[in-house]
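Example 9 (inverse folding). The structure is encoded as follows.
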């Protein structure tokens, strides 16, 4: 996590940072994003299940689980604006009746134990100030035998050159003094470079990326059995960890 305090970091997300996040637009990572959704749906097997989508953002995974036949998807996010965007996405997709939207903090959910057949947290773990707390909440709310899936960004930035994006710009500017970095970034985000690197929405929110082993450990320490870890992208942009809550 960045040097921002926990509450300041959460305030960025409460303010609706991800309300306009659009993975459907042309983007170097578009194919990776599609693979991420398909893999999550294949693992969760949402049909007739109660599914938790934690840190749902504008609803990409919530809608996909509902479209795949979930009995009900509970979509939780810390931002009212983001939840409103997710609700609109569900309405456009014709699945609004099978998605329940709930304002909440992923690190401290007010949800009963073993409430869900499957739990999901996609592209959000990198932004949690206390990821171990979020993993414990996922474990607590998943029924014994239920499945989980989550993704996080690879800490090895080799992928930024194959998939030029905001992360590439951040890496290039990382060694600059803050004032100079902000000035260069403001200039670049208004020009042709903004179309290449997709920097029109500003620098990304506070985040902590993971090694493959480190991300697996977050869930193993929470009590889950990790059944597989999949690299998304070549080289890996995201690690997708999938597994289950043991019966005992």
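The amino acid assigned to each position is listed next.
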């Amino acid at each position: 996590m960045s040097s921002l305090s926990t509450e300041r970091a959460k305030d960025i997300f409460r303010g609706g940072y991800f309300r306009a996040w659009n993975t459907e637009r042309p983007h170097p990572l578009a194919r990776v994003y599609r693979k991420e959704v398909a893999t999550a749906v294949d693992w969760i097997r949402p049909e007739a299940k109660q599914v938790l989508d934690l840190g749902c953002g504008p609803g990409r995974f919530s809608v996909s689980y509902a479209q795949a036949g979930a009995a009900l998807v509970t979509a939780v996010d810390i931002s009212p604006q983001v939840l409103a965007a997710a609700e609109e996405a569900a309405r456009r997709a014709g699945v609004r009746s099978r998605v329940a939207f709930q304002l909440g903090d992923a690190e401290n959910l007010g949800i009963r134990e073993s409430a869900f057949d499957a739990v999901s947290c996609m592209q959000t773990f990198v932004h949690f100030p206390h990821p171990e707390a979020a993993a414990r909440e996922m474990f607590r709310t998943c029924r014994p035998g239920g499945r989980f899936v989550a993704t996080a960004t690879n800490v090895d930035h080799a992928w930024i050159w194959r998939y030029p994006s905001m992360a590439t710009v951040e890496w290039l500017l990382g060694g600059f003094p803050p004032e100079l970095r902000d000035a260069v970034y403001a200039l670049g985000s208004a020009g042709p470079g903004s179309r290449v690197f997709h920097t029109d929405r500003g620098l990304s929110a506070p985040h902590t990326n993971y090694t493959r082993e480190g991300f697996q450990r977050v869930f193993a320490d929470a009590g889950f059995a990790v059944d597989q870890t999949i690299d998304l992208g070549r080289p890996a942009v995201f690690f997708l960890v999938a597994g289950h809550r043991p019966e005992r």
